[in-house]
Amino acid sequence: MPCLLAPHPGSRRLGSFSEPAGTFVGCVPCWFVEANRCGHLASGGFILSDIPKVILMQIISIVQAPYRVPTRPRLLLAKASTVWLWPGIPLTERYYGTVRPTSPDAMRFWLSKFLGPEIVGRPVPMHIAQAAERLTSGDETAAQRCLDRADAATMSPEGALLAVAVATRLGVDIPDMPIAKRMPLWDRRFVADLASSFDRFAETADWLDKAGDWDPDKHPRWPRGSSEGRPGWFRPGDQSGPSVPTSTAPDRHGIGGNGGPPLLDDAPLVPAEDPGPSSRWQIIKTVATWAAKRAAIMAGEDIVGGPVGLLLNAAQIAVWVHGYGPYIQAYTDPPQSLDDLEAAAQGPARPGYDVHHIVEQASGRSGEIPMQLIDSAENLVSISTLRHWQLNSWYQKPDGNFLDTNGVPMTPRDYLKGQGYDERRRVGLMGLRAVGVLK
Amino acid sequence: MKLDNLTIDELISLFASLSEQQYPLTLNDEVRKSTLLIKKRYEIDRELRKRGIAARLELTKLFIHPNVQVRVNAAKSSLGVARESALNVLRQITKEDFGPFRLDAGMTIALVEDGTVTPT
Q: What whole-number distance in Å separates Cα of residue B36 and Cα of residue A252?
Protein backbone atom coordinates (compact mmCIF):
# COMPACT_ATOMS: atom_id res chain seq x y z
CA MET A 1 0.00 0.00 0.00
CA PRO A 2 1.61 3.27 -0.98
CA CYS A 3 1.94 5.92 1.62
CA LEU A 4 1.94 9.17 -0.23
CA LEU A 5 1.48 12.34 1.67
CA ALA A 6 1.17 15.62 -0.08
CA PRO A 7 3.60 18.27 1.01
CA HIS A 8 1.94 20.94 3.06
CA PRO A 9 2.59 24.58 2.40
CA GLY A 10 5.19 25.78 4.82
CA SER A 11 6.16 22.29 5.90
CA ARG A 12 9.74 21.08 6.04
CA ARG A 13 10.79 18.51 3.51
CA LEU A 14 12.08 15.43 5.26
CA GLY A 15 13.55 13.57 2.33
CA SER A 16 12.82 10.75 -0.07
CA PHE A 17 12.80 7.06 0.67
CA SER A 18 12.56 4.41 -1.95
CA GLU A 19 9.81 1.89 -1.58
CA PRO A 20 8.09 -0.46 -3.98
CA ALA A 21 5.12 1.81 -4.54
CA GLY A 22 7.13 4.88 -5.35
CA THR A 23 8.63 7.82 -3.58
CA PHE A 24 7.65 8.95 -0.15
CA VAL A 25 7.74 12.65 0.49
CA GLY A 26 6.37 14.21 3.63
CA CYS A 27 6.81 16.83 6.21
CA VAL A 28 8.11 16.06 9.65
CA PRO A 29 5.00 16.24 11.80
CA CYS A 30 2.51 14.79 9.31
CA TRP A 31 4.80 12.07 8.13
CA PHE A 32 5.26 10.56 11.56
CA VAL A 33 1.62 10.84 12.46
CA GLU A 34 0.38 9.40 9.22
CA ALA A 35 3.01 6.68 9.15
CA ASN A 36 2.00 5.64 12.60
CA ARG A 37 -1.67 5.70 11.70
CA CYS A 38 -1.41 3.60 8.54
CA GLY A 39 0.84 1.14 10.32
CA HIS A 40 3.64 0.94 7.75
CA LEU A 41 6.35 1.15 10.33
CA ALA A 42 4.58 -1.14 12.73
CA SER A 43 3.95 -3.78 10.10
CA GLY A 44 7.60 -3.61 9.14
CA GLY A 45 9.21 -4.95 6.03
CA PHE A 46 8.85 -3.15 2.84
CA ILE A 47 10.59 0.16 3.41
CA LEU A 48 12.64 -0.46 6.52
CA SER A 49 15.57 -2.06 4.75
CA ASP A 50 16.13 1.00 2.60
CA ILE A 51 16.27 3.44 5.48
CA PRO A 52 19.66 4.14 7.06
CA LYS A 53 19.84 2.66 10.53
CA VAL A 54 20.48 5.94 12.37
CA ILE A 55 17.42 7.58 10.84
CA LEU A 56 15.38 4.45 11.41
CA MET A 57 16.18 4.46 15.11
CA GLN A 58 15.17 8.11 15.35
CA ILE A 59 11.94 7.40 13.54
CA ILE A 60 11.09 4.44 15.72
CA SER A 61 11.83 6.33 18.91
CA ILE A 62 9.56 9.15 17.85
CA VAL A 63 6.83 6.88 16.58
CA GLN A 64 6.86 4.82 19.75
CA ALA A 65 6.70 7.94 21.93
CA PRO A 66 3.22 8.87 23.12
CA TYR A 67 1.79 11.11 20.49
CA ARG A 68 -1.53 12.81 20.47
CA VAL A 69 -2.83 14.25 17.28
CA PRO A 70 -3.20 17.96 17.93
CA THR A 71 -6.77 19.13 17.96
CA ARG A 72 -5.81 22.70 17.26
CA PRO A 73 -2.12 23.27 16.96
CA ARG A 74 -2.44 26.97 16.31
CA LEU A 75 -3.35 29.92 18.43
CA LEU A 76 -3.89 32.20 15.46
CA LEU A 77 -6.50 31.33 12.87
CA ALA A 78 -7.73 33.05 9.76
CA LYS A 79 -11.40 32.28 9.37
CA ALA A 80 -14.47 34.09 8.13
CA SER A 81 -12.46 37.15 7.07
CA THR A 82 -11.10 37.60 10.56
CA VAL A 83 -7.91 36.74 12.38
CA TRP A 84 -8.78 34.97 15.61
CA LEU A 85 -6.76 34.29 18.67
CA TRP A 86 -7.77 31.18 20.56
CA PRO A 87 -10.37 30.72 21.95
CA GLY A 88 -12.22 33.29 19.82
CA ILE A 89 -10.75 36.74 20.21
CA PRO A 90 -10.90 38.78 17.02
CA LEU A 91 -7.60 40.48 16.27
CA THR A 92 -8.89 42.18 13.15
CA GLU A 93 -11.95 44.22 12.41
CA ARG A 94 -13.81 44.94 9.25
CA TYR A 95 -14.06 48.54 8.24
CA TYR A 96 -16.23 48.85 5.17
CA GLY A 97 -14.54 46.50 2.69
CA THR A 98 -11.20 46.34 4.48
CA VAL A 99 -9.96 43.95 7.11
CA ARG A 100 -7.56 45.69 9.43
CA PRO A 101 -5.81 44.76 12.64
CA THR A 102 -7.02 46.00 15.98
CA SER A 103 -4.82 48.43 17.85
CA PRO A 104 -1.31 47.11 18.54
CA ASP A 105 -1.82 47.61 22.29
CA ALA A 106 -5.00 45.55 22.34
CA MET A 107 -3.36 42.91 20.18
CA ARG A 108 -0.27 42.65 22.33
CA PHE A 109 -2.48 42.58 25.40
CA TRP A 110 -4.31 39.46 24.25
CA LEU A 111 -1.30 37.77 22.66
CA SER A 112 0.77 38.21 25.81
CA LYS A 113 -1.85 36.35 27.80
CA PHE A 114 -0.99 33.09 26.06
CA LEU A 115 2.45 33.75 24.66
CA GLY A 116 3.92 35.55 27.65
CA PRO A 117 5.56 38.94 27.92
CA GLU A 118 8.19 37.74 25.45
CA ILE A 119 5.69 38.41 22.66
CA VAL A 120 6.27 42.14 23.01
CA GLY A 121 9.58 41.88 21.20
CA ARG A 122 8.29 39.73 18.36
CA PRO A 123 6.82 40.97 15.10
CA VAL A 124 3.56 39.02 15.49
CA PRO A 125 1.39 42.15 14.98
CA MET A 126 3.17 42.62 11.64
CA HIS A 127 2.22 39.12 10.55
CA ILE A 128 -1.35 39.74 11.65
CA ALA A 129 -1.37 42.94 9.62
CA GLN A 130 -0.15 40.97 6.60
CA ALA A 131 -2.85 38.37 7.21
CA ALA A 132 -5.42 41.16 7.37
CA GLU A 133 -4.29 42.34 3.93
CA ARG A 134 -4.73 38.82 2.55
CA LEU A 135 -8.16 38.59 4.12
CA THR A 136 -9.11 41.88 2.51
CA SER A 137 -8.31 40.32 -0.85
CA GLY A 138 -10.29 37.22 0.13
CA ASP A 139 -7.35 34.82 0.35
CA GLU A 140 -7.89 33.04 3.64
CA THR A 141 -5.24 30.41 2.91
CA ALA A 142 -2.57 33.02 2.32
CA ALA A 143 -3.69 34.79 5.48
CA GLN A 144 -3.26 31.59 7.45
CA ARG A 145 0.20 31.16 5.96
CA CYS A 146 1.11 34.64 7.22
CA LEU A 147 -0.12 33.69 10.67
CA ASP A 148 1.79 30.44 10.63
CA ARG A 149 4.96 32.37 9.89
CA ALA A 150 4.41 34.48 13.00
CA ASP A 151 6.51 33.39 15.92
CA ALA A 152 3.54 32.27 17.97
CA ALA A 153 4.02 28.55 18.22
CA THR A 154 5.06 28.22 21.86
CA MET A 155 2.80 29.02 24.77
CA SER A 156 4.10 30.53 27.94
CA PRO A 157 3.69 28.34 31.05
CA GLU A 158 1.22 30.78 32.56
CA GLY A 159 -0.51 31.01 29.17
CA ALA A 160 -0.92 27.23 29.24
CA LEU A 161 -2.47 27.43 32.71
CA LEU A 162 -4.77 30.16 31.47
CA ALA A 163 -5.70 28.11 28.39
CA VAL A 164 -6.73 25.21 30.61
CA ALA A 165 -8.83 27.51 32.78
CA VAL A 166 -10.44 29.21 29.78
CA ALA A 167 -11.10 25.91 28.01
CA THR A 168 -12.77 24.55 31.13
CA ARG A 169 -14.97 27.61 31.48
CA LEU A 170 -15.97 27.71 27.82
CA GLY A 171 -16.09 23.97 27.19
CA VAL A 172 -13.70 24.05 24.24
CA ASP A 173 -10.59 22.08 23.32
CA ILE A 174 -7.23 23.18 24.63
CA PRO A 175 -4.71 24.13 21.94
CA ASP A 176 -2.08 21.42 21.85
CA MET A 177 1.08 23.43 21.63
CA PRO A 178 4.57 23.28 23.05
CA ILE A 179 5.09 25.16 26.30
CA ALA A 180 8.11 27.32 27.02
CA LYS A 181 10.43 25.87 29.62
CA ARG A 182 10.42 28.43 32.39
CA MET A 183 8.51 29.04 35.58
CA PRO A 184 4.97 30.34 35.27
CA LEU A 185 4.65 33.99 36.10
CA TRP A 186 1.13 33.79 37.49
CA ASP A 187 -0.43 31.86 40.31
CA ARG A 188 -3.60 29.81 40.03
CA ARG A 189 -5.83 32.38 41.63
CA PHE A 190 -4.64 35.06 39.27
CA VAL A 191 -5.18 32.73 36.33
CA ALA A 192 -8.70 31.91 37.52
CA ASP A 193 -9.40 35.61 37.80
CA LEU A 194 -8.13 36.22 34.27
CA ALA A 195 -10.04 33.29 32.83
CA SER A 196 -13.38 34.80 33.69
CA SER A 197 -12.67 37.75 31.43
CA PHE A 198 -12.71 35.41 28.43
CA ASP A 199 -16.37 34.53 29.00
CA ARG A 200 -17.46 37.21 26.59
CA PHE A 201 -15.82 35.27 23.77
CA ALA A 202 -17.83 32.14 24.52
CA GLU A 203 -19.91 32.36 21.35
CA THR A 204 -17.02 32.71 18.94
CA ALA A 205 -15.00 30.17 20.91
CA ASP A 206 -17.77 27.64 20.51
CA TRP A 207 -18.04 28.31 16.83
CA LEU A 208 -14.28 28.06 16.23
CA ASP A 209 -14.09 24.93 18.34
CA LYS A 210 -16.75 23.22 16.28
CA ALA A 211 -15.30 24.50 13.01
CA GLY A 212 -11.94 22.96 13.89
CA ASP A 213 -8.56 24.02 12.71
CA TRP A 214 -8.43 22.34 9.34
CA ASP A 215 -11.34 21.85 7.05
CA PRO A 216 -10.24 19.73 4.03
CA ASP A 217 -13.35 20.69 2.14
CA LYS A 218 -12.20 24.25 2.19
CA HIS A 219 -8.70 23.30 1.03
CA PRO A 220 -9.15 20.77 -1.76
CA ARG A 221 -6.16 19.16 -3.40
CA TRP A 222 -5.54 17.97 -6.95
CA PRO A 223 -6.48 14.27 -7.14
CA ARG A 224 -4.04 11.57 -8.22
CA GLY A 225 -3.60 11.41 -11.95
CA SER A 226 -4.86 14.92 -12.44
CA SER A 227 -3.61 16.62 -15.57
CA GLU A 228 -4.65 20.11 -14.47
CA GLY A 229 -2.40 20.34 -11.46
CA ARG A 230 0.18 18.48 -9.44
CA PRO A 231 -1.46 15.59 -7.53
CA GLY A 232 -1.68 16.25 -3.84
CA TRP A 233 -1.08 19.97 -4.17
CA PHE A 234 -3.75 22.51 -3.32
CA ARG A 235 -6.19 23.39 -6.07
CA PRO A 236 -8.46 26.45 -6.19
CA GLY A 237 -11.44 26.09 -3.88
CA ASP A 238 -14.97 25.60 -5.07
CA GLN A 239 -17.05 28.72 -5.21
CA SER A 240 -19.82 26.94 -3.37
CA GLY A 241 -17.81 26.04 -0.35
CA PRO A 242 -19.27 25.24 3.02
CA SER A 243 -20.87 28.22 4.65
CA VAL A 244 -19.25 29.77 7.64
CA PRO A 245 -20.86 32.17 9.99
CA THR A 246 -19.95 35.78 9.67
CA SER A 247 -17.50 37.20 12.08
CA THR A 248 -18.90 38.33 15.38
CA ALA A 249 -16.50 41.22 15.24
CA PRO A 250 -18.55 44.33 14.54
CA ASP A 251 -18.25 45.70 11.04
CA ARG A 252 -17.56 49.15 12.32
CA HIS A 253 -14.88 51.21 13.86
CA GLY A 254 -15.22 52.88 17.19
CA ILE A 255 -15.23 52.33 20.92
CA GLY A 256 -15.76 48.69 21.68
CA GLY A 257 -15.19 47.71 18.09
CA ASN A 258 -11.75 46.27 18.59
CA GLY A 259 -12.37 43.82 21.38
CA GLY A 260 -9.95 45.80 23.50
CA PRO A 261 -8.65 44.74 26.85
CA PRO A 262 -11.25 44.50 29.59
CA LEU A 263 -8.85 42.55 31.77
CA LEU A 264 -7.84 44.24 35.02
CA ASP A 265 -10.08 47.01 33.83
CA ASP A 266 -9.98 48.58 37.25
CA ALA A 267 -6.39 49.53 36.47
CA PRO A 268 -5.88 53.29 36.54
CA LEU A 269 -5.59 55.19 33.31
CA VAL A 270 -1.98 56.15 32.79
CA PRO A 271 -0.69 58.47 30.06
CA ALA A 272 1.73 56.86 27.66
CA GLU A 273 4.39 59.45 28.45
CA ASP A 274 5.63 60.72 31.80
CA PRO A 275 3.47 63.83 32.40
CA GLY A 276 6.23 65.55 34.37
CA PRO A 277 6.49 66.54 38.01
CA SER A 278 3.10 68.27 38.19
CA SER A 279 1.06 65.09 38.04
CA ARG A 280 3.61 62.29 37.96
CA TRP A 281 3.35 61.43 41.63
CA GLN A 282 -0.41 61.59 41.57
CA ILE A 283 -0.34 58.84 38.95
CA ILE A 284 2.27 56.80 40.82
CA LYS A 285 0.17 57.01 44.00
CA THR A 286 -2.92 55.92 42.13
CA VAL A 287 -1.09 52.99 40.55
CA ALA A 288 0.43 52.07 43.93
CA THR A 289 -2.98 52.07 45.60
CA TRP A 290 -4.40 49.91 42.85
CA ALA A 291 -1.37 47.57 42.99
CA ALA A 292 -1.71 47.27 46.78
CA LYS A 293 -5.31 46.21 46.36
CA ARG A 294 -4.37 43.65 43.72
CA ALA A 295 -1.39 42.45 45.76
CA ALA A 296 -3.68 41.95 48.74
CA ILE A 297 -5.89 39.74 46.58
CA MET A 298 -2.86 37.68 45.62
CA ALA A 299 -1.26 37.80 49.08
CA GLY A 300 0.66 34.74 50.16
CA GLU A 301 1.44 33.56 46.66
CA ASP A 302 5.02 32.99 45.68
CA ILE A 303 5.29 34.64 42.34
CA VAL A 304 8.51 34.93 40.42
CA GLY A 305 9.51 38.55 40.07
CA GLY A 306 6.98 39.75 42.63
CA PRO A 307 3.44 40.69 41.90
CA VAL A 308 3.92 44.35 41.05
CA GLY A 309 5.93 43.95 37.88
CA LEU A 310 3.47 41.34 36.70
CA LEU A 311 0.55 43.52 37.53
CA LEU A 312 1.99 46.44 35.64
CA ASN A 313 2.63 44.17 32.66
CA ALA A 314 -0.74 42.48 32.84
CA ALA A 315 -2.58 45.78 33.04
CA GLN A 316 -0.47 47.27 30.26
CA ILE A 317 0.62 50.13 32.50
CA ALA A 318 2.82 52.57 30.57
CA VAL A 319 6.52 51.78 30.57
CA TRP A 320 7.60 54.99 32.33
CA VAL A 321 5.71 53.88 35.45
CA HIS A 322 7.98 50.83 35.75
CA GLY A 323 10.79 53.23 36.62
CA TYR A 324 8.91 54.01 39.82
CA GLY A 325 8.43 50.32 40.55
CA PRO A 326 10.33 50.43 43.89
CA TYR A 327 7.84 52.99 45.25
CA ILE A 328 4.91 50.89 44.09
CA GLN A 329 6.47 47.66 45.31
CA ALA A 330 7.20 49.18 48.74
CA TYR A 331 3.63 50.42 48.96
CA THR A 332 2.34 46.88 48.55
CA ASP A 333 4.43 45.51 51.43
CA PRO A 334 2.34 43.73 54.07
CA PRO A 335 2.47 45.03 57.66
CA GLN A 336 5.63 44.03 59.52
CA SER A 337 6.74 43.84 63.14
CA LEU A 338 8.19 46.90 64.82
CA ASP A 339 11.52 45.10 65.21
CA ASP A 340 11.71 44.48 61.47
CA LEU A 341 10.84 48.07 60.63
CA GLU A 342 13.41 49.37 63.11
CA ALA A 343 16.10 46.97 61.88
CA ALA A 344 15.48 48.01 58.28
CA ALA A 345 15.94 51.66 59.27
CA GLN A 346 19.45 50.83 60.51
CA GLY A 347 20.34 49.15 57.21
CA PRO A 348 21.30 50.74 53.89
CA ALA A 349 18.92 53.15 52.20
CA ARG A 350 16.42 51.40 49.95
CA PRO A 351 14.71 52.95 46.93
CA GLY A 352 10.99 53.35 47.59
CA TYR A 353 11.46 53.57 51.37
CA ASP A 354 12.01 56.44 53.81
CA VAL A 355 13.22 56.50 57.36
CA HIS A 356 10.29 57.72 59.45
CA HIS A 357 10.46 59.17 62.95
CA ILE A 358 7.72 57.66 65.11
CA VAL A 359 7.84 60.73 67.33
CA GLU A 360 8.10 63.60 64.91
CA GLN A 361 11.39 65.40 64.40
CA ALA A 362 9.61 68.73 64.87
CA SER A 363 9.09 67.94 68.55
CA GLY A 364 12.85 67.54 68.92
CA ARG A 365 13.64 70.72 67.03
CA SER A 366 11.23 72.70 69.20
CA GLY A 367 13.05 71.42 72.27
CA GLU A 368 10.03 69.56 73.68
CA ILE A 369 11.64 66.15 73.30
CA PRO A 370 15.41 65.50 73.54
CA MET A 371 17.01 64.96 70.14
CA GLN A 372 18.77 61.83 71.46
CA LEU A 373 15.37 60.19 71.78
CA ILE A 374 14.19 61.48 68.42
CA ASP A 375 17.24 60.07 66.65
CA SER A 376 17.44 56.87 68.68
CA ALA A 377 17.10 53.51 66.92
CA GLU A 378 13.78 52.80 68.65
CA ASN A 379 12.27 55.93 67.09
CA LEU A 380 13.35 55.20 63.52
CA VAL A 381 11.50 52.87 61.18
CA SER A 382 11.87 52.18 57.48
CA ILE A 383 8.53 52.52 55.71
CA SER A 384 7.24 53.00 52.18
CA THR A 385 7.89 56.52 50.91
CA LEU A 386 4.33 56.89 49.66
CA ARG A 387 2.89 55.78 53.01
CA HIS A 388 5.31 58.14 54.75
CA TRP A 389 3.83 60.98 52.74
CA GLN A 390 0.34 59.88 53.78
CA LEU A 391 1.33 59.94 57.44
CA ASN A 392 2.95 63.36 57.15
CA SER A 393 -0.15 64.65 55.43
CA TRP A 394 -2.35 63.25 58.20
CA TYR A 395 -0.28 64.99 60.89
CA GLN A 396 -0.61 68.32 59.08
CA LYS A 397 -4.33 68.41 58.30
CA PRO A 398 -7.01 69.61 60.74
CA ASP A 399 -8.85 66.60 62.10
CA GLY A 400 -12.32 66.55 63.63
CA ASN A 401 -11.09 64.08 66.24
CA PHE A 402 -9.02 66.84 67.83
CA LEU A 403 -11.08 69.92 68.67
CA ASP A 404 -9.74 72.92 70.53
CA THR A 405 -11.67 74.66 73.30
CA ASN A 406 -13.70 76.57 70.70
CA GLY A 407 -14.67 73.36 68.88
CA VAL A 408 -12.34 74.15 65.98
CA PRO A 409 -10.47 71.10 64.59
CA MET A 410 -6.74 71.00 65.23
CA THR A 411 -4.04 69.13 63.37
CA PRO A 412 -2.74 66.02 65.16
CA ARG A 413 0.62 67.78 65.31
CA ASP A 414 -0.94 70.68 67.23
CA TYR A 415 -2.83 68.26 69.44
CA LEU A 416 0.39 66.49 70.41
CA LYS A 417 2.15 69.72 71.34
CA GLY A 418 2.78 69.71 75.05
CA GLN A 419 2.36 65.93 75.30
CA GLY A 420 5.17 63.73 76.57
CA TYR A 421 7.34 61.34 74.54
CA ASP A 422 5.29 58.27 75.50
CA GLU A 423 1.98 59.75 74.37
CA ARG A 424 3.51 60.95 71.12
CA ARG A 425 5.04 57.54 70.53
CA ARG A 426 1.72 55.83 71.27
CA VAL A 427 -0.07 57.98 68.67
CA GLY A 428 2.85 57.52 66.30
CA LEU A 429 2.60 53.73 66.52
CA MET A 430 -1.15 54.00 66.10
CA GLY A 431 -0.49 55.91 62.87
CA LEU A 432 1.90 53.22 61.62
CA ARG A 433 -0.77 50.58 62.19
CA ALA A 434 -3.49 52.64 60.57
CA VAL A 435 -1.39 53.39 57.50
CA GLY A 436 -0.77 49.67 57.12
CA VAL A 437 2.96 49.24 57.76
CA LEU A 438 2.95 47.94 61.35
CA LYS A 439 1.37 44.68 62.46
CA MET B 1 -22.54 82.03 52.25
CA LYS B 2 -24.78 82.33 55.30
CA LEU B 3 -25.16 78.79 56.54
CA ASP B 4 -28.00 79.60 58.87
CA ASN B 5 -30.17 80.41 55.85
CA LEU B 6 -29.74 76.95 54.41
CA THR B 7 -32.07 74.01 55.02
CA ILE B 8 -30.72 70.83 56.57
CA ASP B 9 -30.84 69.10 53.19
CA GLU B 10 -28.88 71.92 51.63
CA LEU B 11 -26.30 71.71 54.40
CA ILE B 12 -25.96 67.99 53.88
CA SER B 13 -25.55 68.48 50.14
CA LEU B 14 -22.92 71.13 50.73
CA PHE B 15 -21.14 68.80 53.16
CA ALA B 16 -21.07 66.10 50.50
CA SER B 17 -19.93 68.51 47.81
CA LEU B 18 -17.03 69.84 49.89
CA SER B 19 -16.02 66.27 50.74
CA GLU B 20 -16.04 65.32 47.08
CA GLN B 21 -13.80 68.28 46.32
CA GLN B 22 -11.48 67.13 49.07
CA TYR B 23 -11.20 63.62 47.63
CA PRO B 24 -8.55 64.25 44.91
CA LEU B 25 -6.62 66.53 47.25
CA THR B 26 -6.41 63.76 49.84
CA LEU B 27 -5.26 61.30 47.21
CA ASN B 28 -2.49 63.66 46.23
CA ASP B 29 -1.50 64.68 49.76
CA GLU B 30 -2.33 68.34 49.06
CA VAL B 31 -2.50 69.59 52.60
CA ARG B 32 -3.00 73.32 52.09
CA LYS B 33 -5.98 73.10 49.75
CA SER B 34 -7.48 70.30 51.83
CA THR B 35 -7.25 72.43 54.96
CA LEU B 36 -9.40 75.16 53.38
CA LEU B 37 -12.11 72.66 52.51
CA ILE B 38 -11.92 70.98 55.91
CA LYS B 39 -12.46 74.32 57.64
CA LYS B 40 -15.49 75.07 55.46
CA ARG B 41 -16.89 71.64 56.19
CA TYR B 42 -16.53 72.07 59.92
CA GLU B 43 -18.55 75.27 59.69
CA ILE B 44 -21.35 73.13 58.29
CA ASP B 45 -20.78 70.61 61.06
CA ARG B 46 -21.08 73.36 63.63
CA GLU B 47 -24.28 74.65 62.01
CA LEU B 48 -25.78 71.15 62.15
CA ARG B 49 -24.83 70.85 65.81
CA LYS B 50 -26.67 74.08 66.46
CA ARG B 51 -29.82 72.57 64.94
CA GLY B 52 -29.79 69.52 67.18
CA ILE B 53 -29.34 65.78 67.06
CA ALA B 54 -31.96 65.19 64.37
CA ALA B 55 -30.09 67.53 62.04
CA ARG B 56 -26.78 65.80 62.75
CA LEU B 57 -28.34 62.39 62.18
CA GLU B 58 -29.14 63.50 58.64
CA LEU B 59 -25.43 63.05 57.94
CA THR B 60 -25.90 59.30 58.29
CA LYS B 61 -27.62 59.42 54.91
CA LEU B 62 -24.13 59.91 53.49
CA PHE B 63 -22.92 56.60 54.95
CA ILE B 64 -23.80 54.95 51.64
CA HIS B 65 -22.41 57.71 49.44
CA PRO B 66 -20.32 56.29 46.58
CA ASN B 67 -17.39 58.59 47.37
CA VAL B 68 -15.16 57.27 50.14
CA GLN B 69 -14.09 60.75 51.29
CA VAL B 70 -17.75 61.66 51.81
CA ARG B 71 -18.29 58.48 53.83
CA VAL B 72 -15.20 59.05 55.98
CA ASN B 73 -16.15 62.66 56.73
CA ALA B 74 -19.81 61.86 57.41
CA ALA B 75 -18.87 59.01 59.74
CA LYS B 76 -16.34 61.10 61.66
CA SER B 77 -18.85 63.93 62.08
CA SER B 78 -21.58 61.51 63.23
CA LEU B 79 -19.58 59.65 65.87
CA GLY B 80 -21.14 61.69 68.64
CA VAL B 81 -24.71 60.82 67.64
CA ALA B 82 -24.47 57.47 65.83
CA ARG B 83 -21.32 55.95 67.22
CA GLU B 84 -21.67 52.29 66.27
CA SER B 85 -23.00 52.78 62.77
CA ALA B 86 -20.33 55.43 62.13
CA LEU B 87 -17.61 53.10 63.41
CA ASN B 88 -18.94 50.35 61.17
CA VAL B 89 -18.64 52.63 58.16
CA LEU B 90 -15.06 53.41 59.12
CA ARG B 91 -14.25 49.73 59.72
CA GLN B 92 -15.55 48.90 56.26
CA ILE B 93 -13.35 51.58 54.74
CA THR B 94 -10.25 50.17 56.46
CA LYS B 95 -11.03 46.85 54.80
CA GLU B 96 -11.75 48.20 51.34
CA ASP B 97 -9.46 51.16 50.91
CA PHE B 98 -5.78 50.83 50.12
CA GLY B 99 -5.05 54.55 50.01
CA PRO B 100 -5.07 57.46 52.45
CA PHE B 101 -8.69 57.00 53.55
CA ARG B 102 -7.73 53.81 55.30
CA LEU B 103 -5.32 55.82 57.46
CA ASP B 104 -7.94 58.43 58.35
CA ALA B 105 -10.57 55.82 59.13
CA GLY B 106 -8.15 53.58 61.02
CA MET B 107 -6.80 56.41 63.17
CA THR B 108 -10.29 57.56 64.06
CA ILE B 109 -11.31 54.04 65.12
CA ALA B 110 -8.15 53.60 67.18
CA LEU B 111 -8.44 56.99 68.87
CA VAL B 112 -12.11 56.48 69.71
CA GLU B 113 -11.81 52.88 70.86
CA ASP B 114 -8.89 53.49 73.19
CA GLY B 115 -10.50 56.61 74.61
CA THR B 116 -7.86 59.06 73.39
CA VAL B 117 -10.70 61.16 72.02
CA THR B 118 -14.36 61.26 73.03
CA PRO B 119 -16.70 62.06 70.16
CA THR B 120 -19.24 64.76 70.94
A: 49
* Residue closest to A389 by CA, chosen among B11, B22, B31: B31
pLDDT in tens, A259-309: 433 345 567 777 878 888 888 898 899 888 888 887 776 654 433 345 576
Is position B30 within any domain?
yes
Nearest by CB to residue A409, choosing from B31, B42, B94, is B42
In a domain, B118, yes or no: no
In chain B, helix, strand, coil percent, each to 5? 80, 0, 20
Residues of chain B contacting A282 with CB distance shorter than 8 Å: 27-28
Neighbours of A172 (CB within 10 A): 23
Question: In chain B, what residues touch A396 (CB-CB under 8 Å)?
Answer: 31
Q: From A290, which residue of chain B is nearest by alpha-carbon distance?
A: B98
CATH for B16:
1.25.40.70
- Domain assignment present for residue B61? The answer is yes
Distance of alpha carbon B44 from alpha carbon A71, whole angstroms: 69
Range of the domain at B43: 3-113
Q: What is the pTM of this model?
A: 0.56
To the nearest whole Å, the CA of B50 is away from the closest chain A CA by 12
- pLDDT tens for B36-84 read 999 999 999 999 999 999 999 999 999 999 999 999 999 999 999 999 9
- Residue in B35, B76, B104 nearest the CB of A394: B104
